[in-house]
Design brief:
Elements: H1 2-8, H2 13-25, H3 29-42, H4 47-59, H5 63-76, H6 84-97, H7 101-114, H8 119-132, H9 135-148, H10 154-160, H11 166-179
Length: 182
């Protein structure tokens, strides 16, 4: 559908943004980066495109590139309270991929303080805290993640979580298993 929208209006940055998001969630990192870069080329001030490009890079195992685009998004839209929890959770995920688990947990904790019903942030907080050895935080975060996403399981993460590199998903699952995920 996003590809049809691009074919209909190739100059609309939102169509490229939508395609990039879909590619990212489907673990097609290069296609996501290309589409999101096209969106940013068409509208360099589209802060949310920088956030999602940051996520695509992070999920694709390039956390420094991800953090770079998150910093751009923050400069473009420093007071956007609707965007801030997303920026924090993607920042946390980038730190997780870089194996900076304490930093990852800190960013995820800030995200859930701003948006208490943010399942992705609770889930990554559980994984990061598990990997950092903070079992109390990990089990609490997993409890919240499961409250918001009752079907959360190891199988769900393996099938749907958009981390493309096996070693990153394995670490994520290790942290979640430490927190008690089955």
């Amino acid at each position: 559908m996003a590809q049809r929208a691009i074919a209909h209006d190739a100059d609309d940055p939102w169509t490229h943004f939508a395609a990039g998001y879909v590619h990212m969630m489907a673990r097609r990192t290069q296609a996501a980066v290309t589409a999101l870069t096209d969106a940013i080329t068409l509208n360099p001030n589209l802060a949310i495109a920088h956030v999602i490009l940051g996520a695509a890079y992070g999920f694709g195992g390039m956390p420094q590139d991800g953090l770079h685009h998150l910093a751009i998004a923050e400069r473009l839209s420093p007071r956007d309270s609707t965007q801030q929890p997303g920026v924090l959770t993607v920042t946390g995920m980038c730190h997780f991929v870089a194996q900076r688990y304490v930093d990852a947990a800190s960013f995820e904790h800030r995200a859930v303080l701003l948006r208490p019903h943010f399942g992705a942030a609770w889930r990554t907080l559980a994984a990061a805290a598990g990997m950092a050895g903070d079992l109390d935080e990990a089990t609490h975060a997993l409890s919240e993640a499961k409250r918001l996403h009752p079907t959360l399981s190891v199988q769900w993460v393996e099938k749907y979580y958009p981390m493309t590199r096996e070693q990153d998903r394995a670490a994520y699952l290790e942290g979640l298993r430490t927190a008690g995920l089955e």
